[in-house]
Design a protein that fits this description.
This protein has 94 residues and is mainly α. The protein is built from three helices and no strands. It has helices at 2-11, 15-74, 90-93.
Length: 94
């Protein structure tokens, strides 16, 4: 009887034990792959937001560079605080 137990302990793992271990590994890998895919999706989203921010900044700088020379030419030295009123009442009295 003792020889029989010693032979069994030397054989290794049974098929059921190996399949159970493999099932646990597959289950853990599926959970980890979902977590990594969600992390990658969040990273792509942040990268797209950063790219959009860079493009918007470049567009604003280009627009400011395009408008600035024109604004310097058309700007009046003293802005009219009430543009809806005439600058001179005498102009309408005639």
């Amino acid at each position: 009887m003792k020889a029989r137990n010693s032979q069994r302990s030397q054989r290794g793992f049974t098929l059921i034990e190996l399949l159970a271990a493999m099932a646990l590994i597959v289950f853990a890998m599926s959970i980890l792959s979902q977590a990594f895919s969600e992390g990658a999706r969040a990273f792509r989203h942040l990268k797209e937001i950063g790219d959009l921010d860079e493009r918007l900044g470049a567009a604003c700088m280009a627009l400011a560079a395009n408008i600035a020379p024109r604004a310097a030419i058309t700007r009046s030295p003293k802005p009219n605080p009430q543009p809806w009123r005439a600058t001179s009442v005498a102009a309408f009295a005639e």
